[in-house]
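Discussion board: Methods & Data

I've been asked by a reviewer to show the raw model output for two of the constructs in my manuscript, not just the figures. I'm not sure how much to include, so I'm pasting the format here to get opinions. Each protein appears as its amino acid sequence followed by a line of discrete structure tokens. Is this the kind of thing reviewers expect to see in a supplement, or should I convert it first? Here is construct A:
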Amino acid sequence: MAMRALFLVLLTVACSSPAGPGRDAARGAGSATAGSAAEQAAPQRELVLFQHGVDGYPNYRIPAIARTARGVLLAFAEGRQRAHDHAENDLVLRRSLDDGATWQPVQVVAAAGRDCLSNPCAVALRSGRVLLVHQRYAQGFDEHAAEPGFEGPRVCRTFLQHSDDDGRTWSAPREITRSVKRAEATSVASGPGIGIELARGVHAGRVLVPMNQGPFGAWEVYAALSDDGGATWRMGQIAPGGELHRPNEVQFAERDDGSVLLDARGMAGAKRRKLAESHDGGDTWSAVRDVDELVEPRCMGALLRHAASGLLLRCGPRSESRRERGTVWASADGGATWPARVEIVAGSFAYSGLVELDGGGVGVVYEDDAVGAIRFLRLEAAALPRPPAAGAAIPR
């Protein structure tokens, strides 16, 4: 493929926040590839969604972002009392009513005293309802010490909440542990990130929440499924091949034919993303496999079906050694290949989320560990990576 002409892309972050001052600074040159490489300068204006030490929480981590049926953006995080996965975490939220231009103040969605709430995973349903799945650990223990079964003080429990008013108010948490956790499993984790509602094929309307289960160090992945909008739940089968790759934090995306792509962090084997697919609505999966193009340092990553273009997009750090070089990859063939990418952040880039915006743009929420913040970055449609097979599919 011929070398493309050099061009400039403006990446803007549209976010007003009492959590920290904005800055207008180039964080390094981004690069895009689609066949042969083309360089892009990527100046960015960035403001903070969640800042360590502000709004009552010394630490924020684990972002997730979703867009409701009425177009409201919901950005979730764990608000932590210290820098630890199990630190009396609450689940917190900021809402945007104008496609990410401004953000409302931090609100608490769920809190459990000294217990720890973790792994927010949001599903925006076409009905307008938003589901939020998370885990609860009793104070004083974590996934390393979680026990199998369903009863007792060291059981990892899963809860579900919902909102019918674009995240303004939320239902009380309802426990669904027995429906989404196997008796032999110790810890489980939803996402973190988003779940999906299938729109195509015989399973249209099914809700899928990506899950992994322990014991610690022996993780496996599967789907929690609901065919009634989240009223009842059951589990699909575990994706085979987990003993080679130890897939952990996981996301799903629906493909054109209604099948589902699974994209997981790998805790064993090569430092590459671990992918699998389901052709029965998440009940069963192909064997987990490495994808050579998708380098990672063992970190959660985001996955999204981009409706405006039909592409699959994924996001994460492109390094084997450090959580840095935040990159968006694109696939035009359902995840079989990922020939195009654009680097959006040269520096610190850890856990992330993707959401489609008006006009075909994409919002990226990500952890900037260098300054202790979670940021929102707007990537315009013209700046998205373009696989050769996609042609001019992305709107300009």
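Construct B, same format:
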Amino acid sequence: MMNGRADLSAILPDGREFDFWEEDCTYTHILYVDCQDPAASDENDGSKDAPFQTISRAAALASPGTKILIRAGIYRECVRPAAGGTDPTHMISYEAYPGEEVCIRASEEVTDFSESTGWKLRPLPEFSDRGLTVSGDHSQNTRITSNLFLDGIEQREAIFIECTKEGTNLIDNNVIWNVEGRFDPSEVPSEPGSSGWYKMKEHDVVNGYGVYCEGTDRLIVAHNLIGKCRHSGYYAKPVSFRMGGLERGGTSRKARILNNIFYDCAEAAIVFPTQDNESEGNLFLCMSGGYLRVMYPAPELCLDLDTWREFCGYDLTGNSAWFGFRLEDGKLSLEERKDSPVHAPGPAKPVQVLRDPSKIRKRKQVSCVPADITGRRHTGKVLPGPFSSWEDGMTVIRTERNALS
């Protein structure tokens, strides 16, 4: 409960409420930090009239029951707390001073440059190219909700959910925007002329996924906005032989992809491994041909919305349209697209595309997603995506707590 009201973002896939380790805490000591006060010093006592210069100094001295109040400013330091809380009523709290904005940057500002000599350029060591990772059967009944994943440069996927074979997991009310992928463009196979038409399945060089599901069964992906992914918004594959003892392999079946918005993903919106999954109520914006795919059995199916419905029975209440969103300064706005779908070579056929957002019809609620990204409870039928209404300046970044279990 928050302020006497149910926190709808804390409802887990099985219907229980996440048990936050959170109670009202009475602080016995307050330390103050102010990097802009000329009298601030790490030699001070941290009182209101004699604040510390750095957060790190306060973190080194704080004990359970301490609140650290930080005045406005940019703090260029890497904070390593020396201690943490001992129980819900004896915590250490780091808070911005009421009404003020605090920014912590673990970097130094350099203004004086000189040319470097006598060094060699070497490849960077391998680093994780994944975003948020959920792995293993211990992660069942997990909910990933109300997050912004923005500008995944050199990132393979925003959310990686791996081999959670039992139970149900939920990814909902997130905005995933611009996942650029990490691959070598020179390794993308050349397919001159019609040579690529007859392959049995797509190559696996290009990546850049919104949600990458590897051997996870019964996953629900609902009411997200997934845009500008280099490969696809949702991609799943089995890991049939990842097993040990009496364990089974992961199938990536019985996924439910519901009421999402997929926008301008370069290769596909949805890639299922088999037809043993569900897709309903999704909105597909500014997608190129063959953006709905089923990999097995070969040859891979690369479909549009009409054949996705006809051959697979998916998205009978879904839509495809040709308008977009713009994300700036934590705000989303609808955007008119002046361009049109690109035709294949040859005589162009007239294509009727829906360009008016007001024509997008509402669809059935998803029972395990009772509210939108702002916490507004759903009533009646709902729009696809994380917002219950589409207005200029839809807030993506919230200052209140986002539940992530």
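Answer (T.O., handling editor elsewhere):
This is acceptable in a supplement if you add a one-line summary per construct. For B, something like: Residues 248 and 343 are 45 Å apart (CA to CA).
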